[in-house]
Specification:
By secondary structure, the protein is an alpha/beta fold. It has helices at 12-22, 48-53, 68-71, 90-106, 109-117, 141-150, 179-184, 205-208, 228-236, 277-292, and strands at residues 2-5, 27-30, 40-43, 59-62, 82-83, 134-137, 157-161, 170-174, 188-191, 215-219, 240-245, 265-267. It has two domains: 2-88 and 275-305, NAD(P)-binding Rossmann-like Domain (Rossmann fold), CATH 3.40.50; 90-267, NAD(P)-binding Rossmann-like Domain (Rossmann fold, 3-Layer(aba) Sandwich). Helices cover 30% and strands 16% of the residues. The strands form two sheets. The chain has a seven-stranded parallel β-sheet. Strands 2-1-3-4-5 form a five-stranded parallel β-sheet, with helices on one face. Helix 1 crosses helix 10 and helix 4 (90-106) crosses helix 6 (141-150). The relative contact order is 0.14. The protein binds NADP nicotinamide-adenine-dinucleotide phosphate and glyoxylic acid. The site of glyoxylic acid has 4 residues, from loops.
Length: 307
């Protein structure tokens, strides 16, 4: 079995070593070396040239949960299955990040930080938890894990997806027609949607204005789902209280971008859930084995939906 492995930059060596150890029967080449027709390509943000030189015969594995950058590669063969990572150690990290951001908002840590800087001792009235709904925009693999992590805190939880999902203790909404009702009680909006033609720019002014006054936005999926100007304008007007942003329309976030120094925005550099070598290699290797045995694998991307 021939495998072509590609990672951007110089980060490929630990991946190569882990795949060699997980699939000792495979001949694993590292881009830009390789055979013209590898059985599998394992890639992250590949250059267009990769698929003009190498045409995977069986499947293309994406070393991340989001496939937006891979689907945007113009040379990506249309008839080869694309398989993404599912959780692979990312759900636990996403739970840590989102739980921190939700509790930070609910316990008004930013207000206490401002008070501290002013040397002011002032106990704020506790916020009513039943009015502090947490809305999970996108209710897939990562959002389900986040919902389970938040459950012990007893926030009213909501999930929004394309198809209706059923989850105990969570009010679920589906499709564009139910989006306004979902937003109306989401005091914290957690964006865990993939970036697709349907979701890009979804969080513009008209959508964000439907959140209750004083809402917080947490975006850990893709920056292009948010319209930056709309977010800034609604923070300015006081409709939104704050935002925790891990992903951006342009990454790295440009040095002169207003998000950097905004007093009510927290910026992190796309770190909410890193791709972990050991977990990811174990998942991809297990799927390759299933593929080789003619068994079905999960995580196959629906090209028409874009995720
Ligand atoms: P997933 O399992 O595919 O879940 C996606 C969810 O979004 C599903 O519930 C899906 O609905 C919903 N959705 C998609 N398009 C929709 C639409 N037009 N309207 C309503 N709902 C829609 O994905 P995941 O594994 O949870 O990952 C989510 C995203 O997180 C990834 O795509 C990636 O961009 C991002 N991510 C970021 C990081 C980071 O470090 N910042 C790390 C990992 C992942 P259905 O349930 O009906 O299909
Ligand atoms: C990271 O952003 C991923 O999609 O896995």
């Amino acid at each position: 079995m021939n495998i072509l492995l590609q990672m951007p930059g110089h980060a490929v060596e630990p991946w190569h070593a882990a795949f060699v150890s997980a699939l000792p029967e495979a001949a694993i080449s590292v881009w830009p070396e390789g055979r013209a027709i590898p059985d599998y390509a394992i890639v992250w943000k590949p250059p267009a040239e990769l698929f003009t030189r190498f045409r995977p015969a069986k499947a293309i594995f994406n070393l991340g949960a989001g496939v937006d950058s891979l689907l945007a590669v113009p040379t990506l063969p249309a008839d080869v299955p694309v398989i993404r990572l599912e959780d692979a150690g990312m759900a636990e990290q996403m739970c840590e990040y989102v739980t921190y951001a939700v509790l930070r908002a609910y316990r008004e840590m930013d207000s206490y930080a401002t008070q501290q800087r002013a040397g002011r001792w002032q106990q704020r009235e506790r916020l009513a938890k039943r009015e502090f709904g947490v809305g999970l925009l996108g209710f897939g693999v990562l959002a389900h894990a986040v919902a389970a992590a938040l459950a012990p805190f007893d926030f009213p939880l909501r999930g929004w997806s394309r198809q209706r999902r059923v989850a105990p203790g969570i009010q679920t909404f589906a499709g564009a027609e139910e989006l306004p009702a979902f937003l109306a009680h989401s005091r914290v909006l957690v964006c865990l949607l993939p970036s697709t033609p349907d979701t890009r720019g979804l969080l513009g002014r008209a959508t964000l204005e439907r959140l209750p006054r004083g809402a917080h936005v947490i975006n850990t999926s893709r920056g292009d789902i948010v319209v930056d100007e709309a977010l800034l304008a609604l923070l300015e007007s006081g409709h939104l209280a704050g935002a925790v942003l891990d992903v951006f329309n342009t990454e790295p976030l440009p040095p002169d971008h207003p998000f950097w120094h905004h007093p009510r925005i927290v910026v992190t550099p796309h770190v909410s859930a890193a791709t972990l070598v050991a977990d990811s290699v174990a998942q991809v290797a297990a799927k390759i084995r299933r593929f080789e045995q003619g068994q079905p694998v999960t995580g196959v991307v629906d090209r028409a939906r874009g995720y």
